[in-house]
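Why run this: before we spend reagent on co-expression, it is cheaper to look at a predicted model of the complex and decide which construct boundaries make sense. The entries below are exactly what would go into the expression plan.
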Amino acid sequence: MSKISTSIMAVGIAAAAFTFAMPAAQADSWPSRPIRMVVGFGAGGGTDIIARLVAQPLSEVLGQPVVVENKPGAGGTIGADTVAKAAKDGYSIFMMNNGHAVSASLYKSLPYQSAKDFAPVSLVATMPLIITANKDLPVADLKALVARAKAEPNKLRFASVGVGSTQHFVGAVFATMAGVQIRHVPYRGTPAAIAATRSGEVELLVEVASPLIGQIKGGELKALAVSSAERYEVLPNVPTVAEAGIKGFDISTWYGLAFPAGTPVDIVNKMNAAINRAVTTDSARKQILDASFIPASNTPSQFAAHLDSEITRWGKVMQEAGVQQQ
Amino acid sequence: MIESLGHFVTGLGVALEPTNLLFCLIGVLCGTLIGVLPGIGPVATIAMLLPITFYLTPVAALIMLAGIYYGSQYGGSTTSILMRVPGESASVVTCLDGYEMARKGRAGAALAIAALGSFFAGILGTFLNVLFGPEFAQIALSFGSAEYFGLMVLGLSVSIVMSHGSMLGAVGMVLLGVVLGSIGRDINTGFPRLTFDNPVLSDGIGFVPLAVGLFGIAEVMRNLEGGSGAAGSILKVGTLWPSREEARRATPAVLRGSLLGTILGILPGGGSILASFTAYGLEKRLSRRPEEFGQGAVEGLAAPESANNAAAQASFIPLLTLGIPPNAVLALLVGGMMIHGIAPGPTVMTEQPALFWGLIASMLIGNILLVIINLPLVGIWVQFLKIPYRFMFPAIFLFCCIGVYGVNSSSFEVLLAVGFGLLGFAMSKLGLEAAPLVLGFVLGPLIEEHLRRALTLSDGDLSVFVTRPLAATLLALAVLAPCLVLLPQFGKRRKEIFQEEE
Amino acid sequence: MMSRDAFAGLFVALLGGGILLLTWRYPSGTMSDIGPGMVLQLAGIVMLLLGVGMAFMAFRASQGDTESILPRNLRPFIILAGMAVFGLALESVGLVLTGFLSTFLATWGSPSMTLRGRIVCAAILTVFVTLLFGYGLRLQIPIWPRWFLA
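The model came back. Tokens follow.
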């Protein structure tokens, strides 16, 4: 047999084999094939890590692999758009985070509607942010910091991972609510911001908790306050911003899963139950906690209400912080 | 120092435990594989393996993940040498003289030198880390924005020096690179620059489509066009091993490259690409045969390859001693540590000595394993060169397509690579080089960022670049570097004129 | 005849001018607060001047490299066409069809292949990369056409 017919046969056999291996999609027997979990950021970021930590136990509960797919770009909106326009069959789910609520007002135009195009399923985890200071800055707590910032306005500087980031906004909201003026200095990436705060190039750093824990425990950065309403269980000695007298201050980053809008309610509820079971197994809970996230879960309607209120909140914050739309 | 050596021996004991040894082997094997294959890099691989490492001991997990990273640095040079397709930013320099060596029938020698150079760099880097790691790490903290600005400008200046065509053309290409690198949302203000209102461009252009287009695709185009400068239908294979002369020339270059790589690798952001470009520039300056650079000079391959690998080893130091990962891959290792309840920070070294020293010692073992794996592979890789080019180029073509798509699962990036292929082809027609463009692309945004931040912090006072001694020194060197190269050229030209008159 | 270096100079100048045109309206800011436009505008201006300088010097030298800057034939561009097909078709028809089509197209970049050779070459490569990247490494890449799965 000539080479050409051999190779054509090979293609044919391969094609046939994979065709038969392809199971059909049926709504009542959901899930009958692998589910893709789309992450709007590159591999290795916080959103990617929580997605992978959740996907593993979720696969076990559902009996079908849950495959994490990274669609990075444009602040997570490319991944969001992929899911918003995906088939409404319960085989595409989006790992949403609070950046989704921020981008709703940060961008002039998005190819999808941040709330209406999604069917929220459940929250999976949260993480507070921490306001930290260079260890030599002579302020013992947040009250002292506020006093110092009032004494010398526009002198203190805080580092963040960029304009329009949650970190930037938490710093800005803190400044507004405390009635102080501090300058924002954006850095490219968390490591650079940590290094700059440690070396004293800037005095303050607002960052999500996980990369700071080692620095705080090692005494290289001084933790002044956590941004959530309750204290953070990994660092129980650090008071909240509200405890320092700024009443009502409560911001956390959050992560949750959402199908495209129009996915059958049965599937949404089935998935919600699966997520609730997956994140509460002992090993999954421990992994999520060790990675310094706080496991969370709720109902589809609670998560939908949460998403709505976050979109409204960040829209207001952006206006107050004077960030330009893009 | 003696104390460190004692710890290191203990660490060696940890790394030699059978399970740890096994995971070290798995790691470097995976690393070699993904280094060679397009479209899948250490970042994606480590991210995929992270949840699995939960079931290993923390030491075994980190040894394996680290092995994937530095193993991929070994594999990364293979496609650069054989096909002129750089897999990551630091191997762009390998394309210059490595690929030229392959075209001259020295592919085997080039691959062997790359593997051996990486090996020596890995060993040397590991020992430098053991002896001076914590001291080196302090360098990273003493660098403020003004110092980074100085260093990056120095890097650019060196790259202009290393160009072999017209220096003005090289400056032009660096600037084009800077402009391409600045596409996307400005990090200081969020202003969208040159995005043409397309959200896909708001995070900027990726490195892989740029490099694959400018180097890999443009090279295929040149070869298909035929005529002078094309690779012809068959590449000679030649002898497999470096000749004595090649080994003699490579040795000092490997040493210098390793030293440079170790120091620059500690610095976050652009450390490894700076190391490979600077090592190349240094060799060209020191060489008695600078005209051979770009035509397959052994030093021009050995030095940057070693620098690149030494930088990979050194980058673990700021992670382990300061808790600050200097690049995206090591940031993932932070995730790997967190899953095991170890928060990376200044206390890891004292609180987890078995982990710290075991990991460092495993790099020594990993490098030995890598050279054992890679040297026999050289024989296999050169066999590919025996395939006639008319069958080879469709394979390179398809690998480039999948490689570009695979990085971000983005069709748009494939189309970008088409554009950069056209640009690269046009540039070669005009005698303009691609390497300075790539360096400008990587360093440009960093230079701008540090300049702006330094001036924001100093309230617009330019004197920060003079009053801070380290920054001032680096900037002075940056100005001197091109002068140093121009002088002997003038000298030579004058000599030629005199000879004509005689 | 204009030398290659003169064309290179004009090319750089043209790019510089284009960049300047596109970024002219970007805010350039002040010394203590450099705006997003300053670096781009500076790069554009320097490239424009540099390019004009290069072209001028090349004119005066008037010898230099006289190698034609025009491509000898159109074969190199077939590769670009193939890659564009890959980028445009992949997400809707998947790796198997796209890989075969684009590689088959790309083989026309070489004049010395039989039609049969081109088909075999494209088929073997497609099967190989599908098995390796699609099923072996599980790269995030669509393998089959979208309608095929639904």
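The two ends of chain C are 61 Å apart (CA to CA). The interface with chain A takes residues 96, 116, 119-120, 123-124, 126-127, 130-131, 138, 140, 143-144, 148-150 of chain C (CB under 8 Å). Bring this page to Monday's planning discussion.
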